[in-house]
UniProtKB/TrEMBL annotation:
<dbReference type="InterPro" id="IPR015422">
    <property type="entry name" value="PyrdxlP-dep_Trfase_small"/>
</dbReference>
<keyword id="KW-0663">Pyridoxal phosphate</keyword>
<dbReference type="InterPro" id="IPR006235">
    <property type="entry name" value="OAc-hSer/O-AcSer_sulfhydrylase"/>
</dbReference>
<dbReference type="InterPro" id="IPR015421">
    <property type="entry name" value="PyrdxlP-dep_Trfase_major"/>
</dbReference>
<dbReference type="GO" id="GO:0003961">
    <property type="term" value="F:O-acetylhomoserine aminocarboxypropyltransferase activity"/>
</dbReference>
<protein>
    <submittedName>
        <fullName>O-acetylhomoserine (Thiol)-lyase</fullName>
        <ecNumber>2.5.1.49</ecNumber>
    </submittedName>
</protein>
<dbReference type="InterPro" id="IPR000277">
    <property type="entry name" value="Cys/Met-Metab_PyrdxlP-dep_enz"/>
</dbReference>
<keyword id="KW-0808">Transferase</keyword>
<dbReference type="InterPro" id="IPR015424">
    <property type="entry name" value="PyrdxlP-dep_Trfase"/>
</dbReference>
<dbReference type="Pfam" id="PF01053">
    <property type="entry name" value="Cys_Met_Meta_PP"/>
</dbReference>
<comment type="similarity">
    <text>Belongs to the trans-sulfuration enzymes family.</text>
</comment>
Amino acid sequence: MLKKNDAQGHSVHPATASLHAGFRSDPTTKAVCVPIYQNTAYELDGDLSKIADIYNVKEDGYTYTRIINPTTRALETRFAAVDNAADCLAVASGQAATFIALANLCSGQPGDNIVAAPFLYGNTWNLLHNTFRRFGIETRTAANSEPAEFEKHVDDRTICLFGECVSNPILDPLPVRSLAEIGRKRGIPVVVDNTTTPLVCRPSNLGAAMATYSATKYICGHGTTLGGLISDYGSFPFQQYPDRFPLFSAPDEAHGGILWHQAVQEVNDLGKSAALLKARMTWLRDTGPCASPFNSFQLLQGLETLHLRMRQHCENAEIVADMLNNHPKVVRVTHPSHFTGRKRELADDLFDKRYGYGAMLMFEVKDAASGRALIENVEMIYHVSNVGDARTLITHPVSTTHTTVPREKRMAAGINDGTIRLCVGLEHADDIIRDLERALSAVN
Ligand SMILES: *Cc1c(COP(=O)(O)O)cnc(C)c1O
């Protein structure tokens, strides 16, 4: 079995961890690939007091797939090694990951608030501003992504600073390192959604406390499977802030008056993150968005080649961004590889250039009619509002995801009438370019 560090203390590279971490072979058959334990419950045999210990989080063990499953646990352990995390929790979708990661931090008393970045994935915006608000959790939005704007909204009941490492679809880079400094000073964890840049951006190195991922996107990589992952980097001392995070230090009624910081020391496999142990044993148990074992298996397959695919996605995106930048019918290209000034600084701090700058880009044609004509004239590229498929995907937000958003509001967010979002896939870059050039020739 792969160890986290070798005898010389070298940590294992993500490429290796994605193939080896957390699972060697099936204990009964010696099968090398993680088996699909398409299974709901586990026989409670043997010593009954031992069974009670599993239920009471005094011992590791399998009880029910809503809470834990061997296939899903292998995905969690493997992804934790890939993402430099203490532990990881897999759930049914990216939205479930964001929901559970943030709900898990609330105290359950009035006053809890989240300070969020100005640009968020649409459904995350809805989760924060509508659904959480209905539960009494307030979201305060920073006017822009400068750290000082976040700090203005912080109070002694702020449960986290939240944003996307680079926002979907606006591509606004988040100053994760500076936010983490504010967080350390004020005792507030930084939680980032790193869906669009796994491995390209390493939240663990930037001081983030936790990250959420829609594994549906690049981790799956093939547009076949929904899933979500929450990483806990183990760097945030929740227990040191009992006023802000009472459920991390006082007895939690949601699990028989358990003390999570003590419980986490009694278990072994699940003993690497008090936050995720709490999330699993209360939020996942009670709300139920567990990963299906089959989906976890699919995500394990995707994870094996994530590092190769991300490199190729990023390389293709830069080639396509350069071509679009030189095209007479393209008004503007937004891709982190083309950032200048402050955004350049942020991007250079956020991204591991050995991978690149991510594979999502935006560009702009003259007007809405040109945008529609472009979409209608691509042949190979798919008109699909998804991210992180192996295939190149294109959307015209004004005709799809942003049709109901008032014009001034979307313009303020950088979505103009002729804005196009492109998620560059793994085809040969020449073929992506040829398709775009042909479609652009049909545009005014
Ligand atoms: C897609 C996406 C999500 C939601 O993920 P699902 O798996 O579709 O629930 C959240 N955040 C970002 C940035 C996304 O792109």
